[in-house]
Amino acid sequence: MIRRKLLGVFILSCALGLSAQEKKSFTIDISHPTGNISPNMWGVFFEDINLGADGGIYAELIKNRSFEFADPFMGWKKLGEKIGEGTFLVLNRKDKPNNPRFLRVNTSLSSEKVGLQNEGFRGMGIKQGLRYDFSVLYKQAVPGITLRLQLVDTLGAVIGESTLRPEKTGTDWQKQQISFRAAKTEPKAKLVLWFEGKGTLDVDMISLFPEDTWKNRPGGLRKDMVQLLADMKPGFIRFPGGCIVEGRDLANRFQWKKTVGPIEDRKLIINRWNTEFKHRLTPDYYQSFGLGFFEYFQLAEDIGAEPLPILNCGMACQFNTAELVPIDELDEYVQDALDLIEFANGDTGTKWGKLRAEMGHPLPFNLKMLGVGNENWGPQYIERLEVFKKALNERYPNIKIVASSGTDPEGERFEFLNKELRRLKVDFIDEHYYRSPDWFLTHANRYDAYDRQGPKIFAGEYAAHTDRTAGTGNRNNWKAAIAEAAFLTGVERNADVVGMASYAPLFAHVDGWQWTPDLIWVDNLQAYGTPNYQVQKLYAINKGTHVISVRMDNVIPSGQDGLYASAVLDSKTNEAIIKVVNHNDYPINGSFNIQTKENLAKEVEHIVLTAGLAEENSIQHPNKVSPKIDKVTLKGKTIISDLSPYSFHIFKIKIK
Question: Per the residue annotation, which of 119, 342, 375, 431 is the catalytic one?
Answer without folding.
Answer: 375
